[in-house]
């Protein structure tokens, strides 16, 4: 996908701060320091728009990035970082649950998992939560450049088994360093947008009839 325009729009913490222009939204969820900001920067081909940090737990809001005036990437706070206070973790959980629970423009959650490690308890809870509420999900295994290519199949299989990965869900192998998976992930996003538009058109036709 050719990127012609990218804009950081807002850091939101409440529903009244969410975008209201009805563009399709794709949220990025994952544990702290899993590489969500680096993934965004690779996806939009901008080195520093999404701020990366060696300090886990730095993102504490829902960060909205508008791409090509047609889609939002929404970066969630990372979960599972022990040094974030219990109160903050509860606030993050409430904020994310509020967003995911009733957000019509949300088309899919990109569930980011480090390919080098077995999914954490929080990773599994997030995936189960998304499946329970029937929110479309694409599992993105990041940092593929950090291990030999020969280990990719074994690691991906281990991650899918730990999550209880549903065959209907999508999976993309990704590297923010090399760009592996970028085109495939944009294809997943564009396909979800097209399917949503088709469903909306069918609903409109039914209502007219």
CATH class: Alpha Beta
Q: Separation of termini?
A: 37 Å
Question: Looking at this structure, what is the CATH superfamily?
Answer: P-loop containing nucleotide triphosphate hydrolases
Helix content: 25-40%
Main sheet attributes: strand count, strand direction, barrel closure: 7 strands, mixed
Q: Mean pLDDT, rounded to whole units?
A: 86
- CATH architecture designation: 3-Layer(aba) Sandwich
How many structural domains can be distinguished in the coordinates?
1
Number of helices: 5
Number of strands: 7
Order of helices and strands: EEHEEHEHEHEH
Structural class: alpha/beta
Question: What share of the residues does DSSP label as strand, in percent?
Answer: 15-25%
What does the model show?
It comes from Paenibacillus glycinis. Keywords: Cell cycle, Cell division, GTP-binding, Magnesium, Metal-binding, Nucleotide-binding, Septation. By secondary structure, the chain is of the alpha/beta class. It has one domain: Rossmann fold (3-Layer(aba) Sandwich). It contains five helices and seven strands. Strand 3 and strand 4 form a beta hairpin.
């Amino acid at each position: 996908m050719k990127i012609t325009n990218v804009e950081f729009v807002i850091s939101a913490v409440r529903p009244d701060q969410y975008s209201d222009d009805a563009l399709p939204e794709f949220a990025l969820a994952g544990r702290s320091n899993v590489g969500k900001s680096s993934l965004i920067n690779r996806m939009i081909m901008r080195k520093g728009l999404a701020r990366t940090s060696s300090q886990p737990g730095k993102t504490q809001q829902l960060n909205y990035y508008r791409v090509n005036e047609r889609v939002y990437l929404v970066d969630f706070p990372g979960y599972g970082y022990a040094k974030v206070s219990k109160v903050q973790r509860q606030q993050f959980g409430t904020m994310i649950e509020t967003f995911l629970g009733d957000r019509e423009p949300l088309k899919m959650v990109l569930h980011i998992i480090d390919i080098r490690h077995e999914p954490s308890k929080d990773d599994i809870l997030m995936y189960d939560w998304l499946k329970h509420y029937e929110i479309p999900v694409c599992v993105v295994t990041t940092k593929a450049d950090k291990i030999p290519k020969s280990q990719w199949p074994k690691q991906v299989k281990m991650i899918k088994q730990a999550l209880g990965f549903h065959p209907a869900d999508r999976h993309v192998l990704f590297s923010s360093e090399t760009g592996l998976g970028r085109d495939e992930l944009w294809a997943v996003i564009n396909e979800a947008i097209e399917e949503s538009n088709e469903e909306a058109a069918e609903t409109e036709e039914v209502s007219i009839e």
